[in-house]
Each structure stands twice: as structure tokens, then as C-alpha cells.
Amino acid sequence: MGHSKFKEKMVHGLFFLNGLLVVLVLVGIFILLVAKALPAFREIRLIEFLFSANWNPTATFVAPTYGILSMFVSTMAVSIGALIIAIPLGIGAAAYLSDVASSRVREIAKPVIEILAGIPSVVIGFLGIVLVGPVIAKIFHLPNGLNALNGSILLAVMALPTIISLTEDALKSVPKSFEEASLALGATYWQTLVRVKIPAAASGIIAACMLGMGRAVGETMTVLMATGCSIAMPKNFLQSVETMTSTIAIELGEVPYNTTHYYALFGIGLVLFIITFAVNMIADVVLHKHQKVLK
Amino acid sequence: MKIKQFKEMVGFGILRLCVGMVIFILVIILYDIISKGIGIISWKFLTAMPKNGMTEGGIFPAIVGTVLTTAITALLAIPLGMGCAIYLNEYAKDTLITRLIRMAIRNLAGVPSIVYGLFGVILFVETLNFGTCILSAGLTLGLMTLPWTITASEEALKNVPNSYREGALALGATKWQSIKTNVLPYAIPGMLTGTILGLSRAAGETAPILFTGAAFYLPFLPKSLFSQFMALPYHLYIMSTQHHAISKVRPIAYGTALVLIALVFAMNLFAVIIRYRLRKVRME
Q1: ipTM summary value
Q2: Which of B10, B93, B100, B111 to mutate: most A Cβ within 10 Å?
């Protein structure tokens, strides 16, 4: 009996350690990124790194500069552009699927969204080059269509599944009594949806959009392939831009190990980590509020 | 009254348009890749080495590289993901630590894939000194897959009715015995399905393997887990942006894209079949 009790405790302990491992990985990512980025700031002032728009680490005749502001603005511009496309489309699709669609339409749409979510980002980026790019070039009379707009369109496609499925969940979690009360008062289904259900699900929908934003900010391959990648402060959506993720992807393979430039790229990774962490945490808090309100 | 109904009609029409648009996007994507990629697919394309600076030949090493990397990913993600899910669903009480673990899982799911790549470079390539190789890349992808595996596995465990656990406990079984005999057999199909779905996403990822082991051009198969390797997603990236004769190799790029999505979908289908078959066996 004592033996089996001991075994039980061992098993329990092992599973507990396994659970703790997840926390360890998250903390580990943060600590290792900080440790690797820190040496960069022996040479770069943090203020310059965050708020200067000059990124020229390979300058030979003048002092190299390490300002990530233009990449940060590019990342935000491309992501916000993506959300402008994906949010109305995603909420519209989710509302249709949760409130209007027949079960047959739902059965078609569900796998469609799952398949869309499963398409690798590199394939979406490839389509940005061969499909979306030429169309943009033709419409706006540009030499090529690799620019911020292209990136936004592709990121919208990638954020859509997240936004649709989470918004659908939020709408479904609105108690049936809300809907019934509204209908009983003589409102149409449309009025009920727009004035009762969507406001009631608002915080869930906001969380869905934020998670879509997090996904867009961190996406690498699509923006790397489709935005043209030239570092500059973006002035409009038809300009080539280079996001933080693209800069890491392009430059990490080329820089010599353990130089200031090398460490600075990990610094960009750290900034990315902090941004997405913050976005996720806020989404989390908003979502909790949503669940509490509905209870 | 009429205006109300008219508004409703227009409103629902717009929503229908949104769903139509989403379906249209997927159809365009699949149509373009299948119609332009199918022409180059042949037995030779799938089983030959690339030749002449990748302007001719096949993509065999890229397929092998992706399969091997995904196998390593599975070896890490399956036991650790299932273990964590078992802890959360069967053992954990609602304590601060449990909430911390859950918060960590949600955040890990949101960490950008390129950040996992950087983490892989620091931990596996440099600190553990594996170098850039299949092992480093597979382990990096494994960590990235963990949050998906855990969430899917926990979902499967939740679907096992509590009475199964109580039945075993009432007969004098210990907690672990009850999990082993009365919970896991019913949960494993669902756990496997979710895990394979996660693995299929890992197989299509590029950013985490960019600096942890994927190679530009290797016209031979990897010799060990410590070799660099070609991978389908990285090959597609190279063929569409980095190659010296991009327009000439466009058909190969399309073919690679088609093989990559076919592989991802095949894994998804496999997952669904596993769930279906194992469920049937249990029923009988």
C-alpha cells in the first residue's frame, strides 16, 4: 500500500513538473532574449534604438545607426491595414454563421475557415507575389505590387480565421434570453443582432480582434515576401516597407555572430515579444470581463 | 414595418456577402495553386534531387527534411503536451500556479513564430551546441506546437464524463489507475487528433527554421539529426524570392506550394480519420 501511495505521489509530481515546464518556456524565452539583446545596449542608447528611424547597422564610413522606429511604424501600419479589412469582414461572416446561416451553410463554412487557418504563411506570401502583387501593380500603375497594401491584404486573410471563430464564440455565448426578450418586444432579427447581441458580445469581439492583431504583428513570412522590404518610414500604403519581423528574417542570416548588429536583432525580437505579450494580456483581461458580465 | 424588414434584408445580404467573400478567398487560393502546380507534379518531381542550381529536378530532399523535422516536433510535443493537459484537467486545483500555467499557455500561443526561431537559436543552436540542424529545428517547432497540443488534449480530456473516473475510484483504484484505465483510452483519439492538427501547422512553418537548420540547397539527404536539411516551406520561400532565375523556376515554386498544402491537408485528414476510427472501435 505504501508503495502504491509513493507511486501516486511520483506520478502527480511528474505531471506537475510537466505543467510548470510551460511557464518555464515562456519565462525562458523572455530571459534568454533579454540576455542576448543586452550586449547591444553597451553601444546603442535605448532611446536611439526605440525612437530613431535610422537603421543602418552596416554603415562603413559613418557610425552605424540602430533605430527601429520606421520598422515599428511599418509593422503597425501593415497590421492596422490588415485589421481594417479583416474586422468588418470577419465580424460580418461570424454574425452570419452564428445567427443567420442554415445548418447546411454552417457545415460548408466551418471547414472552409479551418482550411484557411491551416494554409502555411509561406504559401500566402507566395500568393502575394504571384497573385495579389500583379493586381495591385495594375490598378495603381506601379512597377511592382510589393508594398504595404499587399502585406495588409495577406495579413487580413491570415487574421480572418482567428477573428471569425472567436467572434462566433462570443456571439454564441450571449444568453438566449437576451435574444428572446428583444424579439418579444417586436424587434426584427437584424435589430436584435445589431442592437442587442453584438453590444452584449462586444468585449469578446474586441478580444477576438486583438488576438487577430497579435497574429498580424508577429507574422513573418507573408510580410517578408509581399511588402518589398525596404526600410523607410511609411508615408502611404503603396510604398515598400520592412517590418520588424522581416528585418530579423533578412539580416540574422547575414550578420557575423556576436556583433552589436547581431545582438540588436535579438533586441528587435524582444520588442516583438513584449508587444505581442501585452496585446495578448489585454485581450485576456477583456475576455474575462466579457465572461463575467454575461454571468 | 416595411422599412424594418427591408433593412433586415439588406443587412443579412451584407453578412451573406462577407461569408461569400471568405469562401471566395479560399477558392481563389486553392484554384491558383492547384491549377498551376499540378502540371509539374510527377513521380520524378517528388522523388528526384534538385539539379542545376535548383532549376531542374525534384524536391525529394525538401520532403524528407520536412518529414524528419516534423517527427522530432512530434517526439517533443506529444508527450509534453499530453502530460501538461493531464495535469491541468485531472490533477490541478484552481490555485495561483494553475492560473499561471494557463496564462503561460495562452501567451505562448501568441508568441510570434520568428521569436520562437530566435529562442531556438539561443537555446538549441548556441547554448546546447546542437548547431543548425534537424534536431534544433524540430525542437524549436516542438516548443511552438506545445500550446496548441495542450489545448486540444485538454479539450479531449474534458469530454470524458466524470462518472468514468468516479467508477474507477469507487472500486478502489488510485487516481493514476483511474486515469490510465478509465480516462486516457477514451481521450486519446481526441488528443491525437488535436496534436496532429498542431503538427500540420508546424510542418508548414518557415520562420522558426530559418536560422535553426534549414538550408538553401543540399542535393542529398541529411545524414543524421545533426545535419542541415532542406524543407518544403523554406524551399518555397527560396524559389519565390531568393533564386537567381525566379521566373524560370516559378513552376517548381508552384509545385512545391502544392506539395506543401497537400501534405498539410493530408495530415489534417489523417487526424480526422484517426478520431473517426478509434471512436468506432470504442463503440463496439
Answers
A1: 0.92
A2: B111
